[in-house]
Every structure is written in C-alpha cells, then in structure tokens.
Records
---
Amino acid sequence: MSTPATGDMTVPTMMTSDEPGPSRSAFSEREAVIEVRNASFAYPNSATVIKEFSLRVEPGRVIGLVGPSGCGKSTILSLLAGLRSPTEGEIVWSDEPQTEHRHPLTMLFQKDTLLPWLTAADNVDLHYRLTHSKDQTPERLHELFTMVGLGGAERAYPYELSGGMRRRTAFLTAVAPNPRVLLLDEPFSSLDEPTRVALHQDIFDIVKRMGIGVVLVTHDLAEAVSICDEVLILSARPATIVGSEEVPFGDSRNVQHLRESPQFLELYGRLWRQLTIQIEKSRAAQTAASAVVDTKRGRWGRLKSGR
Amino acid sequence: MAVSTDSIRRVRTNGGGPTLRVSKGSVDRSSLSRRSTILIQISIVTVLLVAWEFVPQIPGLQQLSPAFDPYFVSSPSRIAECIWGLFTGANGSVLIGPYLWLTVSSALVGTAIGMLLGSFAGLLLSNSESLNRILRPFLVAINATPRIALIPIIVLFFGASFETSVVSAVLVVFFVAFFNAFEGGRSVAPELVQNVQLLGGSRWQVVSRVRGPFALAWAFAVLPLAMTFGLISVVTAEILTGFKGIGSLLSIATSQANATLTFSLVIILAVVGVVTVTIADKIRDRVLHWWGK
C-alpha cells in the first residue's frame, strides 16, 4: 500500500460558497484517489471478514456501503484508513502530483471525537494543526463555521452544543485538514430525522465543493440514497459486493425535496429488497452457527456429566 | 407539593396489576428553600450543643455512661473558651498559629507533590501496556499496605521533621492521584486515538493531546479527596512522630486526658478540613468547567 507524502506545501484553499468549485464531471475524469483491489481480510485464527472486495474512490464522489449488521463494513473503512492491512489484495493511493497540501484521509466516527476541554474552534484548529503544523487563521475558522451554519458558536465548549451542532463541529474537524478522502462511519445515527436531513444537505454540498472522495457506511438506506452517488450492497460475512446502484440525482440535489420524489422511493425500494435478501441470509447463517455451538456444548455437557 | 399529571407513569410490574411510579425529579422537591434548609441545619446544631452543654449536668447521668461525664466529653462553653485561648493566648494558653501553619503547609506541599507524581505515573502506565504489566503489581501491593505502618520507616530517614509529614502525605495522595490518572488515561475511546493517528499525529501527540489531558482531568477530579487524605496523613504522622503540629498537640492533649483541648483541636481540624476541601472544590470546578455539565 503506498501512501502519499504529506509534506507541508501551501496553505489549503478551501473553496467558499462564493467560489464555484470543480464540477462533478471535472472530478470524474480524474483517476481514483484510492483504490481497493481484490482485498480480503481475516483476523488471526478467525474466519474471513472481507472477501475479494474492490472499490474506487474518486474525488467529489460519494460511495455508500450498506449491508447486514456485523458484515464487516467498518472493517472496510479501517482497511481504507490504514488502521488494518488486507490479508490478500492491495490498497493503492494515486500518485498524482499535489498542487496544494491536502491531507490524504480523515474519518468521522460514529462516536464523538471532540475533545471536551477545547472549544469548538480549538477542536477544528487542532485537526488542522496536526496535519499542517500551523494554526488556522481566525477568518478561515469563522468561514468554516459559517459554512455549516455554526457562525457564532466557535467559542462554545462541546457540552454547550446540541447533538446536531456537535456533529456539525465534528464534520468540520474532518474537513478542516482538506482531505482527499473522507470516511464516514455511521456518523449521523444518533441524530433525529430533521437534524440528520439538514446535515446531509450541508455535507453533500461541502464534499462536492471541495472535491473530497467519500465512503459512507450506514444502516440508513434513505441516508445512502440522499447523499451518495453510488450505493454498494454488501453480503453477510465474509463481506463482498453483491449489488450496486447508481444514484441518478446529480450534484445539485435538494436532499429534503428528494425524499418526496417517486425516483427516490423506487431506488429506496430496490435497495431495500436487495438488502433484505442479505439480512435474511445473514440470519440463516447465524442460526446455523448457533446450532453448531449448541451441538458442541451439548456434547461437552454430556462428557462432563459422564453420559 | 404539586405533582403534575405528566409526571406519573403507569407501569406494569411482573406482579401483575398496574402500579404508579413517579418519575425522577418530577415532584417539586425543591420546595424547601435554601433559607429553610439553613434554618433547620442551625436548629440541629443548636439542639446538639445545648444537649451537650446541659445533659451531662443532670445529676445521676454520669454514673450511667462516660458519655455523660464532663471529664470525658467537656462542654461547648469550655471548648469555645479553649479555642479562643488557642488563637489569642488568653489564660496562658499555647498559641495554635505556628502549629496550624506547619500542619497545613506540610499537607499542602505533600498533596501537591503526591498529585503531581501520581498523575504522571498514572499517565505513564496508562500509556504503556508493558510498563503497566511490570509495575502495576508493585503499586497495588504498596497501595494495599497501610501507609501509617510506613511512617516509622520514613522517620528513620528524615527523623521527626517537616519532611516526614510531607512524605507521609505524598505516599497517600500519590495513590489517589495515580489510580485516577491511570483510569483516566485508559478510559480514552479508541476512536480518539485513531483519529489523531489518522491525522498523522505522533505517539507523543496522542499522549499530549488526548491521553494526557484525560488522565490529568481524572486526577484533578479527586483534588478535594486528595486534600483531605493529605491532611489526615500529616496529622497522623505528627501524632506518631511528635513533630510540632496539630497532631502533636492532639497527642499531648490525649496523654493528659484533656478532653476540652482534644475537642478544641478536633473542631479546629474539622474547620481547616472544610475550608481546604471547599477551596479545592472551587479550583477543581474552575479547571474542569467543561466536564460533567
């Protein structure tokens, strides 16, 4: 696995809403930022978790991963993040020349990663300082906070923010280093529906504007259809891609209105049917595995009791 | 006392029939005003003091128990007079100032050193699994040993001195801070560490940015408790060594069976304890204002 160098080059220039960013089509012509090629993964002395998994992450494109619970979605993210290495296959980063300093990859976790003793602005600044070895300017910080509707909340501590505001701040910490790839591990599962939809819109607009390649792991199909360009259905363990749906809503979608459209409901239904099949297979496999364990326990019990 | 209809939840128990459960905090329990609370507290103290002053004077009670004998329990009026004497030197009483200063200063110094060393050791071990495996059994063994039993050994090194009082406080406070800092460092969510690593943070940055502040916050949270333990340790050391301090005065008072002086010193110590713990509480709340809201 090759990882691009992160040497300090220039101050990242995050595009504001006034500056039109590169269009989706411009990004799609570029090669993948990171590519997973036939990767498999198994924990030591354990069954295979991921089998022959392939994925291309392109700039400004959002890919959703949905699958039965425990199928290995988060493990795929940890492979992409380099926290684990595939036991087979490879993960390759593009070696395209860097014209501006962009951090290779950041991740937004399901759990809160804001440091409680720092203000919202200091949390965002810390993420920038770790990757760029210098502070964000106050103007840039204000611009970032305004971008997600948190203007004026910069000096607030995490405990002073609502759940939605904390998630927005956490999202800012993930985009402040100007990453090429952003991994989202069920980041909105703790939020109520209206807050989640509002956040979807902000996130979708920002990653498109900044040209960030995104991999989203979620249990929420509506969320996947709302903000993804492509949704991949994963099988039960070992996880492998069993289905894929292109999301045809383009780059200037209105997430809130989208949910009322027949196209949305139709796509949702197709994904739901595919996912249900995998969930049922997963349940059947779990039942079979429990039966084997019960049989072994039964034998052991009989041995112990001398029968 | 008003109970809103919303506050009552009907719940079905395993026993069958529906029962009423009042949800927590829904009843207006704050109807007792701060003023009333203080008035009740003052009344309790007044009743106790009056009983303490006059019950032992009832003829015949002294034969029932030493608890009614003024020789053993003294009286609030005599104790007040003694405390006045201790602070003013009235009636040729010894002045408590220098004793109090030595006790409080050695407790403060010992607590500060114990907190620093304990926090640092806790952070170090929480950050290194191998170091934790090697050293933790020793630390647990030392913690299980009554520290008072170590004071004679400390006396061998430092004699009956200020240093002995300080080291006694350090020995006790160290473990209070250590175990909290250790747990604080270990309680850090793996996502926080992974996040810093993904951002290219070094091992040192993980410690300085994430694990360290968590460990220090946990250690700081027990500052009031540490302060109490520091004071107890110093007084115990002074009783055992006879080094000048409130402890040595207590030792003299009990050896002379002087109940009035003993009670006076205990009350002074209690007031000193309350003041130091209150100050420690305020400092903790100020430093950790971001926590526990």
Note: Residues 262-305 of chain A form the longest helix (44 residues).
---
Amino acid sequence: MEVKIENTNAETMVKMIGRLDSMNSVEVEKAVAPVMESDMKNVIIDCSEFDYISSSGLRIFLTMLKEAKKKGGKLSIRNMKAEIKSVFDITGFTPLFIFE
Amino acid sequence: MIKIEHLSKNFGDLVVLKGINIEIHNGEVISIIGPSGTGKSTFLRCINLLETPSSGVIKINGENILSPKTKVNDLRQKMGMVFQNFNLFEHLTVLENLTIGPIKLLGKKKEEAQNKGRELLQMVGLAAKENSYPEELSGGQKQRVAIARCLSMEPEIILFDEPTSSLDPTMVSEVLGVIRRLAQEGMTMVIVTHEMSFARDVSSRIIYMDDGIIYEEGTPEEIFDHPKKDKTRTFIQRIRNFQYKIENKDYDFYGMNNAITTFCEKHFFKAQQIQSILLVVEESLQLYFDKDNIIQRNEIIKSGGGINLSIDYSEKDGQIVVSFVTTNDLPSIIKGAESSDGISMAIISGMTESVEEDEIDGRLRLIMIMHLI
C-alpha cells in the first residue's frame, strides 16, 4: 500500500495505491496525518489505483471526512472502482462522500 | 481403442501401479484425479511407454504394444503427450517447434508442415507468435504451443500430464480453453489433472486413482456428486474445502489471504468474488480480535486452541460457506458486534446471505453463507 500526497495551490491530492486492510491501516493513517493537520480546504482522494478496502480503511476515510468538515473544508473521492465503491454502498458510507 | 489389462509398474521395491484394468474408447475424454503420489502420471507414462511397465498388457487397436515387435516411434506418433513443463525445443521458433516432427517423422514437405503449423497456431490463438522463441512466451502460451505441436503430429489420442500445474493461476484458463475445444471436436484424451471444475465439465469419465489402483470410476456426476467409496468421498470433500488455523492475533494475514486466493482461483472464482470472501474473513477476524479487548481476546483464543477457518464450496449450487470455530469461552461474536461501530458487521452482512452462530461439540461456530452469482 502506498500513499502519495501532492499539494498545489488549489487542492491536495491524496493518491491511494494498492490494498488498504487491517494490517497496513496504521501506516496509512500516519501517511495521511499531514493532510489532516492541514486546512483541508480541497482534498481529493484519487482511487484510480486503489484495489481493496476493509473496515479499517473505511474508518480512515471517515476520519478524514470528519476532519475536513470540522475545518469547513471539502473532501471528495475520485475514480473509485466499482468493486470498492460497493463496500461504501453496503456500509451506508456512499451518501456521506462526494464521488467524482 | 486402448485396452489395458493388469498393468503394473515397480521402481525397485516400490510398487507404483498395482494391476490397472481399463478400456479407453474413441472420442472419450477421461480425467484421472487423485492424491499426489498415487501413480497417475506413471500410469500415463506407461501408456505411451515413456516408462516400461513391469507387467500387463496394453493393446492399441488390438495390437499389444508391450510386444518386442512394437515400433515405439510409430506408437508415439499415434499418441501425443503434453507435459507439465512444456518440453519445447528452446532453440527453435514456435513454428519450427510445430514443423520439425511432421517433416522428420511424418515425411511432410516443409511448406505443407508450415501451413498446418500456422493453422494450429491460429487454433490456439498464437498465430502472431510463429517467429518467437519459447523463452519469449508466457507459461500459458508455451503450453498452448506444446498442445499445437502435439496436434501437428495428427495423434489419435492425446495424453495430458498435469498440463496446468506449473502455470501461474492467471494462465490456467487459456490452456484449459484449448483442451476444452479439443474435447468438443471429439479428440480422444486422457488428462491427469488437479483442476476439478475443469475435469467435471470436460470429461465423459472420471477415474479416481489411489494407492496405485483405479479405486473408483464413473461419470463426473457419479464421482463428484455421489462418490460411493470412502477414499473418493474424502478426496472430493477435501478439494472443495479450505482450512486454515489462526493461532493468535499475530497470525500471517497475507499468507492466509494468499492461500484463500489460491483455493478460490482453483475453482475459477472471479476476482470480485475472491475480494468478497477475503473481506468477509478479514472483517470476521476483526470481530474476533476486538481492538478494545485485544489482549484478553488473544489469550482466550490462544489458550482455546486458536480459530479454525473453513471455506466450503459446492460446485452444484455455487454456495460458499465460510465458518470459524473457536472456544466457547469467547463471548458471542454477533452480539459483540452490536457494541462496536458496526462497520465490520455491515460489510459481512452486505457480502453474505446469512450470518449465524451456534455451538458445535462445545465450540463456538460462526457460519456465513455466500453465493457465487
């Protein structure tokens, strides 16, 4: 699992690459910590190369969303594959997020 | 076509085949299944005399091929063989691999052999690779070339010795697809295989070998759905059942996932179906090793003999049963989930048709039923 973060003036792009499961979720949490500490004005999570998510990963997404909302920012999800999106659907997470 | 009587093979004191009797008729597709080391490959190699039988009779169209008068090369031309490790000529191109036999052994002209070779490469989907060398091909492509090469000798029967066992799982289906097509075209084939779904689909007869004998034989339905004998039943049950022991919280998560994936790929589950099973297993284990009580839970699980994960697959109705059995000193997993944030149970419920818990022989069992669509 790899997390790439790119900051531009307009947005913060968080690219998730690989499989996010209960074994590597702590690492991913650490990797996204700088984003959570930022103003989170416009955070986009790019999921084009994201292949698997379990509850541990969903909790990270949810924490990021809450943090963005708390700061009056915006968090959206881009290019999520249908099979990953189905995990958001069955857990009722889909309406909480903006999917691009 | 082929009649085998009392075929035996010893390697020194080791008796590998113990008096095999079988008839193979024209157009039959016979799959030989059974545990490793029970003589399946040796049997196949005896049929075309790659191994010399210790005793018995093998008659092809009435002629006893074990007679000293038999011309072994003539016999091998009638009988093609596809090996686990392809056995291609590495220094020849793909097309040359297909033409060398017909030119040298069948006396065909080069052009005729090349035309036939190209036709066969087209048939196995490798027309574009005729000038490639084997080392430039993937395992699946090499095996398809090996099948085409075998066909170039115009055999009356093809023997397949575990044709997919050295292939990456992603390449198995392309090879099985070619064999399937040959079966549809009426080619007589004997296939030693561990691919049970394939054997079931493609075969007219299944032979279950165990301990050097044909222990049971019948139609795919008879052997896979209603095996009569104990060893066959145990074997059939085992191939559809995956088991994994989780000793404690430091279990090998990725090792377990790889083993589940391999089991699922053997049964041709789709990628998304495999992901669903992996998710259900991961989320269940999240509930077992509840983060808020992990030290206590770990101690109970460890001292209670761990958690036994079992995945059972029924080919008949596509049902998958995932179950976990552990000590009943643990509290109910389903009830415990109610006091969690609910995400793990929401995933499990969304991926399965039912989630139940019961006690079996004093142990707590969590059973989840899924269906392959």
Note: Chain A has a mean pLDDT of 94.
---
Amino acid sequence: MCLGIPGEVIEVDEERPDLAKVAVSGVKRKINIGLLTDDPPVQGDWVLIHVGFALSKIDEAQAAAELDYLAGLGQSYEDELAALRDSRIE
Amino acid sequence: MRFVDEFRDAEKARALSAKITSLCEPDRHYKFMEVCGGHTHTIYKHGLEDYLPENIQLVHGPGCPVCVIPMGRVDDAIHIARQPDVLMTSFGDMMRVPGSGGNFFDSNAEGTNIRMVYSPLDSLKIAKQNPDTHVVFMAIGFETTTPSTAMTVLRAAADGIENFSVFCNHVTIIPAIKAILDSPDLRLDGFIGPGHVSTVIGCRPYEFIARDYDKPVVVSGFEPLDILQSIYQLMLQLTEGRCEVENQYARVVPWQGNTVALKAIHEVMELRPYFEWRGLGFISHSAMRMKESYAEFDAERIFDMPGVRVADPKACQCGEVLKGVLKPWECKVFGTACTPETPIGTCMVSPEGACAAYYNYGRFTRTRVREVSAHEHV
Ligand code: SF4
C-alpha cells in the first residue's frame, strides 16, 4: 500500500479524462489521473501510482529504476501487483 | 545480495561509503533517523549499515502507517463490520494487524465481511454494485494515500452514492517527527526524509526541523545508492555547519508537492485535535478526520463505536522501536513469540515495519553480529 508503482499510460479515457489505462509489469489496468490535472499525462508518459491514483509523473529512466527496486522487494511487490490485477477502477 | 553482485552499484556504494567515512570525526557519534518504513526495508535488505563507519547509526522512525494504528481502532473497525448489512474494505496490510480480540481474518471467521481492496475506488465500486449493503472503507496511511481517499469521497459525492463511507485513520508525518524531536529519549543528528509522502506534501513542511531544531533533512529515494547519497549529503551539511532541507529525490518529488492532492485532502478532511499512535501515545493535530460537510461519508458519525483505548500487550515494545529507542532485536519477544506469521506488535505485520524488515533480512547485519558476540562474552 505504501509502494509507488510505475505505469506507462496507454490511453486516456476520452469521456472520463480523470481515468487512464496504464501498463504495469504486464498488467493493464485503469487508474485515476485526477491528481495530475496541473500537468496531465498523455499516452507514453510514465506515472508513479499509489493505490490506484497517479501521484507524480516520472521519466522513463526513473520508471526503470523504480521497477528494479520493486522487483527486489519480492513478495510485497507480488502482493501489490496481485491486488492491482484484481482492481476494477471506474 | 543482488546489490552487491552488481559490480557497478557495489563500486559506487563503496565510493560513497569512503566519502562518508572521510567526513566522520572519529570520536563523534552520528545518529540519523530514516522516517519512512520503505527506507528501513532497503537498509536491512541491502545491509547498508555495513557500508557505514561504526560511529554512524541509523535509527528507524515511525513511518509505517500500519504500525502506528492502535489496537482500539482495529477493535472499532471490527465493531463497525459487525453491524448488520455492513461490508468493510481495507488494504491488504491491515488484515493481520492485531486488535484486542484478534485481527480482520479472525473477525471474518466469526462472520464479518472484511475484504481487501487495492484502491479506495474499488471500495466505491463494491458499494455501487451492492446498493443494499453499506460499504465502509477503513482508510489508513500517511499523505501518500490520503489524497486517494479524499478523491474517492469526492467521486462518491459527485455520483450521489449513499451507501459508502470512510472510517478515517489517516495520519500526518510532520507532527510525528516533531513528537520525536521533542522526546528526551533520543538525540538525533539529522533525518532521511520520506520519499513518497513528500511527492504530496513537498519539502517545505520539513523546514522547521532545520530552522527550529538545527538538524539537516535530506528527502531520499529508495534505492540503496539513494540512501547512501542522502547520508553523504547529511554528513556534508554537518561538516560545513549547515542545516537545510535538501531534495535528493527531485526526480520524483517536486519541491512544492502535489497541490491538487493537498487541495482535495483539505476539501474533504480536517486535522483532529489529537490521535493515538500505537506506541507513541496521543499526538496533537497528527491525524485527519472527515469534515462536517462530508458527514454522510463519515463512518465515525454514522456508526456508534466503542472508542475504547486498549493498552498494547505487555510484552510488546513497538513504541520504543517506532521511536527508534530500541532496535527490533532488542524486543524480548522478537523472533520468538513475535514473527511475521504470528505478530504480537504491528511492526511485525507490514513488510515496511522495522521488525518485519529486520526479521526478513537483517539477521546478519553489523548490529546483529555485535549483539551475538556480546552475548557470547557474558
Ligand atoms: S518484536 Fe513484535 S512486539 Fe516486539 S517491537 Fe517488534 S513488533 Fe513489537
């Protein structure tokens, strides 16, 4: 729950601009991007996701570094990803 | 260890370690607190203490939101979950936090319906799908998760959802740091500031630490090299007689934080006059509650709760661990009666808890080796 997970924005929902589909370690899920209205992410941007909400934009190199860190966490990252996989945000 | 295997990183770590050592005055002791449980995790996992000179000590702080939830609040949550037609949701980390009569899993075995969710928005969705059930989201976390709860309440209000509420247990990091600074138990030389919390609150709220307490703060990333770099920056400030807030994690943390998130929080929530933190006791203005204007989404107003203060089990020394006064292995039940499978205290529950991190990775670090050899000589 404290983990920030990097995801790549695949598409922003046209009808609901506060939602975007992102790819996270092979999982594709909808997340909320409503906290980034000051500088909304577009397709191809990377964001750091906390409990379903993008909290900050990051660059691709940083995303790789964060993923590397998460992979090293083992079980707690697996658990968080499993939870994300079950998530159905709308 | 992956970190040591990676030649380049190990090389960089050694270089930083040498730079840190060169700044140490040999007869001075340095104590730095890492506030965030994520940092504690990295420190134990990669044995970072082994890269530091003996006279630099890392002290683990209160920055694991699961670890600071007092037993009474778990009991209150279970009490709400027992009400007819109530379904409770919370993050997975919450499920094994012990209350006085067991945890959420135990409670479910006795008939409650407490479900794990990834996001508060998942709770809202469950509410929409089950209009005859009242869905209560047990919200926990520091400022990294508070905006998500606030945004979810705003969504519920916009959609006119009437069967959803929040049992708000969000805590704020600054008063906890202040309580530690004011506590006589601990003499600290500086802080490794939390990374993700700071994406929301920014770096400015830490300025009082430098200004009023003359201690440097470096907001840090989570990689081993980030933490070593932050320690180096702290040492450099001390050597040069500076006390400032520096942002080592600027690639993620904007100095001013996330203003949209802060606005959402303050729209929906306000500071409580005081809140009990497990082990730290009551700290004023240290947690959030729902504002009156969002009363219909406030589980505390909707349900009667016992609200009883429950003392921690006698054997439990989480308070001392959370304040950094004791190392996890100095607690009498560590690793024997208290393990991640059967936690007595909360620091053993979440992987970011100091006891769990130490239990999983730390058994061969410097402190442990010293501890073992000290015992052998008694
Ligand atoms: S070992 Fe268990 S009881 Fe002791 S401080 Fe750690 S979590 Fe608390």
Note: The radius of gyration of chain A is 12 Å.
---
Amino acid sequence: MKTAVRFSEVHAEYKTTTRDSRRRTRTQWHTIFKGLFFIADFNKHFSGRTVVLPDTAERFFGRFGQTLQNMNLTRAELIKLEDPEFERQFVVYGTNQVESRYILSTSLMQRILEFQKEVEAPLHIAFVASSIYIAIATRKNMFEPRIIRTILDIGLIQEYVEDLQLAMGIVEDLNLNTRIWTKV
Amino acid sequence: MQHEAGVLKEVPELRARAIGGPISSDDAVELNNQIGRALGGIMVAVERYPDLKATENFQQLQRSLNEVEEQISAARRAFNASVTDYNNAVEMFPTNMVAAMMSYRRRHLFEIPDAEREAPSVKELFAQ
C-alpha cells in the first residue's frame, strides 16, 4: 500500500480595506502562509483534531510558557508530551488527549524532530480527518521557472529536484507507508 | 500440538477472569501482562503454519492487536501525563494547601513491570 500525497506551493493571504478621513480606501494584503503545503493520508484512523506548532512561548519563558499555553483559549486542549526535546521545539493542541497521543507515538515524535532538523524552516503540522497536513514556510518561489534569468542553470534544476525530493521524502521520513494498524 | 492447545486455552481463561466481576487495579495490571504474554505465544505458534499466517482473518487479527497496543499505550501516556500534573499540583504551592485540606494524595503512575523491562528474548519464546 502506497500513501496518497498531494502538495503544492501555497500563498494564502487575507484582504483588509481601510478608509481614512478623506474617504480614500486603502486595500492591504496580509500573508497568512507562504510556502510548501503537503497533505498525506495518515496511517491511523482518528476523528478529532491535533495541531503541532513551533513552540515560541516555551523557548522564551520556560515552564511559565507552558502555563501561558494552557490558558490559550483560541486553541483546543494543550497536550503535554513526554519527549523533552519535542516539547522544547513544539507545542501540541488537540481535541482529545488520548487520541493525540495515539497519533503522536514516541517514534513519530522522533521522526518529526529529525525532519525538523532537515528542513530548517519552522514546521506546522495538523492532523485532521485521518490525514496529515504539513506546512513548511519558505520565502522562495518553488517549482517555478524564472523569467528573466536563464533556466539552463544546473543549480536551479538541482534546487527543483531538492524541493521535490523534500516533499516526496516526507512519506519515508514520517514512516507513513507502515500500515500495520487497522487502517489499510 | 499439546503446547498450542495450552496456549489457545489460556487466553479465554484469562479473558474470562479479566471481565468476570470486580478486580483490583493491581490484579488488572497482572492479568493484562499475562494476556500479553499469551498472545505473544500465539504469534510465535502461528509462525509454524504459513497457510494460517497468510489468511485474511489472521492478518486482520494482527492489525487489531497492533491497533489495541497502540491505543492502550496512548491511554497510558495520557493517564501518566494527567497524574504527573495532578501530583505536581498536590505538592506545589499554593495548590498543595487546598490538596491538604481536601486530603488529596499523590497517585501512582503506570509503570512497566520488571518482567517486561527486559529485552524480549525471541529464543525463549520459541523454547516455550
């Protein structure tokens, strides 16, 4: 069984319009996310939601950061995991304490940490409706030829291949092809 | 054959004890371990029957066992995380004062029994 994947470069923005005293309108676009967005079929069934975000609060405030995270009302319940390295780098919120731990097994936590080292950019991961969603923020335009410069540059092609390999490698990196649970 | 019959009989017996009436939490952990060992024995016994191993039913069983194990481990970890939070609250100021008033005590975490902490020896499983 091979894992079904989809990925794309995504630039998501929202628009705000403001009107000043002289009734001139000004439209602004604010970036929500720009980078690689990857969706794959996860190897376990689940019905709730779990999100894994980069942990900024704990890095700045230490243990007190966790208290702050616990009070975050915009998110679901804070899930405290037992891997200290994972806890330092990520914060996890989920709708169900047991289910989130069922998804984030100790081995998957290790694999996510390894993967984080590989990509360098901060990882945002969500587990919804038996799928895994991974967002990797990047500044460059991926999978696109440049218009003004030559495309015969081997470095450029290499970069495309690397981007593609990164996306395709996620399945291996997170071991999504292992289907030993009830989900086929 | 004799041995296999023994293994196959053991599981329903243990199961009957596990669901038949109230048992203390210590007994539950012990029964759980015994069932785990017995199931391990079945898995090894099955290796001798390639036909059986290849059947769909059996593969389904194997998947179910993996699933159950993963779910149980998740539940254990969730339990331990809440107990750790609770124990910290019982011992730390200012919540420890409330805990003392309500006579809340520290709770025990789920621990791996010594027998399971040893690296599993496949040789021993085969020799059974």
Note: The first helix of chain B runs from residue 2 to 19.
